[in-house]
Amino acid sequence: MDARLRRVNKEISDCKNDKTSQIKIELFDESPFHLKGSFPGPEGTPYEGGLFEVDIVIPDSYPFQPVKMKFITKVYHPNVSSASGAICLDILKDAWSPVLTLKSTLISLQSLLCSPEPNDPQDAEVAKHYMTSKSSFEETATYWTQIYAGGPGPKEKKGKGVGGKGVQDEVAIAGLERAHVDRFETLGFERSKVIDALRRLNYRGPNIAQITDDRVVEELLK
Amino acid sequence: MGSDYEYSDDDGEYYDDEEMFDGTQDEGDDVDMDNFGDDFKVAGKGKRKSYEVDYDSLSQQAVEKLMQRDVDHICGIFGVDTDTANLLLRHMKWNKERLIEKFMDNATSVLVAAGVAAPEPASPPAPVRTHNNSAPNSSTTRRPTTRGSKLLSLASGSKSAKSPPSTPKPMQRQLSKKQDEPFVCQICFNDAPDLQTLSLGCDHAFCTECWTDYIVSKIRDESEHSIRCMAEGCALVAPDSFIRSVLLPETGADPEKQEFNEKTWSRLQELFVRHFVGCNSSLKFCPYPSCTNTVSCPSAASKSSLTTIVPTVSCGARGIGNSAQDPAQSQQASLGLQGKEHKFCFGCDIESDHRPVICGVARMWLKKCRDDSETANWIKSNTKECSACQSTIEKNGGCNHMTCKKCKHEFCWVCMGPWSEHGTAWYSCNRFDEKTGVDARDAQSRSRASLERYLHYYNRWANHEQSAKLSLDLYAKTEKKMEEMQITSALTWIEVQFMKKAVEEVDKCRMTLKWTYAMAYYLAKGNEKELFEDNQRDLEKAVEDLSELLESQIEAEQIPTLRQQVTNKTVYVQKRNEIVLEDTANGFLEGRWRWNVPVPGFDDPVETA
Ligand SMILES: [Zn+2]
Ligand SMILES: [Zn+2]
Ligand SMILES: [Zn+2]
Ligand SMILES: [Zn+2]
Ligand SMILES: [Zn+2]
Ligand SMILES: [Zn+2]
């Protein structure tokens, strides 16, 4: 039998038989080379309570070339693209070793959620948010966990930002303050444009003092 | 850095000026052209012209010899084996002096960093980032790194010890059954009792088959020559003898696989050579597909040299792939692209031959063309309307002298003006009259003038590029004409080659002309620029004349006259081209050229009111 197939099959069945593991690997359809992995968000992080799904593609020369993984679930994290779910992690690139497995790689993703590396970002805007204000970043990440990963939502915190069930709050998704968005909206700009501009400018925390209203208007007129 | 790095003290063989590949060889072309080519010699052969650089062409074997010399040198000094010397040199980017310095300072750390030896005793491999709680099976592959630490003690002692360190033997072939627990390959999970395994000095054992697949994948999928141990976090690098023993085992595998692996091995040798060449600024690998030659051009090794020379070089080979060099095909192939020599610029990757303009300015121009492509798009169009009757005319040859099929109006493709003004009253088409239409007080018209100025140069630039592309058609047409001539006249094959030579010359000169427009666009106003544009205009006129002659109808009785005319004009075009190239190159050497924009390596433009 094809060595790659033998190895992948063994990895899948090992993972199934491990009842203590939180890591799950399932087939999408018939192919053992396109899989769906999932794991719970780590405790004590903004991702706690969420379930994170990962798209797994096994390349032809696996395990000698790294497995391809990206998040299916939207994640607010400096090393994960907020748009595509692409992941920046060394073991998925040049630090890959053929002894690593799908399971061990998924565990690495789980631990990546515990320890972001904003200096080696996949999503520059999210990384800037993280560097500017960790608490504001965590609020947004928690909100994303709630609306995209089925998380419980913020633990009785001011209750702001979170809309009713099913209603997604664009301001909270962008990690911004409602008051700021409202203020520029009253100048006559479209709300979605204001949100985009403020997000691009990283209009958060101590940064707000650095950004003049003129600068925001300039960005809005682009 | 590799910039000031020389091959070795006893060198000289490869850089001997007398043996230099003579750049004028491209004048002579094929062997079978020799007796004919003499008609076209402009200047005496021999001395290098000011627009040429000294360079040397090296085969892959010649470069391998240079590498081997460095390896032998290191082996001799450090008392290590070839494998180790190779890994050390590759790690230090072939900077031998720095390697010796570092090795003398701390042999252990160099050996570890180069992946020859494992780090200090039996410490677990450095954990991969964000990988703290993972990979339960990686611990089972960890074994005490006895061999590694033994090597280390020897290596670190080499500083003071009289006897050189024994060469490390970082390879082990073993049968797994020697240990009490049964061996399971941690990659393929094979646990067959007779499983053959291999490990580097670190003792991370994996089955032979996994090693083979891994090495093949690294070389073929990643073009990687530095192949690390497969264990997670282990930084040992597989030495050449190990890779060789895996890919080319003595006990023959099935022939198909063996051939595949042999190809992989030779691909690896090429990767080694490419890496070596990339580490040395006076070497460059030939960019033509499937060519493995290298060009050595020390005079263009530094960035600053590129402000005074345009290092156009050729690796010595011709054609694309191996087929074009087949002598049976060469007669056919020599006409078209196929037989072209591997010409390239040593200083940049933008175009094979952008003489007379230097790399930096050529790059600047191409960037401008890219940025302004939207506005300039309309000119790229391959069709225009006749200025007299408005019927659509398609350009289908290299010549700018257009004759409308419908109304017989003759005009210039570039400026759309009547051709009569060009032919007799001279060729004012190459020079943009900057005085016209500029209203200094009107900002809008000024910006329009600047766009028009750009378009003037771009238009002519693009036209010559277009014509050169169309000259492939011209090649084909000319070939047909040459065949006809042989039938309708008494001329031999050799005697009709003047047509081919003329097409080649037109092609070549259009390239020169093309780049003169990039140069002229950036040249500061003044006498120098006017002289430059005078030379440009003379060449352009000569090229258009010859080009037109080539596209004219051939009547059998006129062939002897035509032959004389074409030959004369070809010589003249060649001469004009020489003048443009020579004068521009001299100008760079003398520091004569001034630009209207800042160019790195030149004085900033002086503001002229
Ligand atoms: Zn194996
Ligand atoms: Zn190892
Ligand atoms: Zn070549
Ligand atoms: Zn160049
Ligand atoms: Zn017409
Ligand atoms: Zn014209």
TrEMBL record, chain A:
Q: Which residues form the UBC core domain?
A: 3-150
Coiled coil: which residue ranges? none
Going by the UniProt record, its keywords in alphabetical order are: ATP-binding, Nucleotide-binding, Transferase, Ubl conjugation pathway
Which GO molecular function entries does the Swiss-Prot or TrEMBL record give? ATP binding; ubiquitin conjugating enzyme activity
Q: What is its EC number?
A: 2.3.2.23
Which EC class is the enzyme in? transferase
- What Pfam family does this protein match (any one)? UBA_3
Alphabetized SMART domains for the sequence: UBCc
Looking at the record's lineage, which domain of life comes first? Eukaryota
Catalytic residues in the record: 88 (glycyl thioester intermediate)
Q: List the InterPro entries hit by this protein, alphabetically.
A: UBA-like_sf (IPR009060), UBA_C_fun (IPR015368), UBC (IPR000608), UBQ-conjugating_AS (IPR023313), UBQ-conjugating_enzyme/RWD (IPR016135)
Q: Which family does it belong to?
A: Belongs to the ubiquitin-conjugating enzyme family.
The protein's name is Ubiquitin-conjugating enzyme E2 1
Species annotation:
Psilocybe cubensis
Taxonomic lineage from the root:
Eukaryota, Fungi, Dikarya, Basidiomycota, Agaricomycotina
From TrEMBL, chain B:
Which GO molecular-function terms appear in the entry?
Answer: ubiquitin protein ligase activity; zinc ion binding
Q: Which SMART domains match?
A: IBR (SM00647)
What's the EC number here? 2.3.2.31
Q: Catalyses which reaction?
A: [E2 ubiquitin-conjugating enzyme]-S-ubiquitinyl-L-cysteine + [acceptor protein]-L-lysine = [E2 ubiquitin-conjugating enzyme]-L-cysteine + [acceptor protein]-N(6)-ubiquitinyl-L-lysine
For bias kind Low complexity, which ranges apply?
138-164
Q: Which UniProt keywords apply?
A: Coiled coil, Metal-binding, Repeat, Transferase, Ubl conjugation pathway, Zinc, Zinc-finger
Cite the residue spans of the region called Disordered: 1-37, 120-176
Chain segments annotated as coiled-coil in the UniProt record: 529-556
Q: Where is the RING-type domain?
A: 181-433, 185-229
Per its record, how is this protein called by name? RBR-type E3 ubiquitin transferase
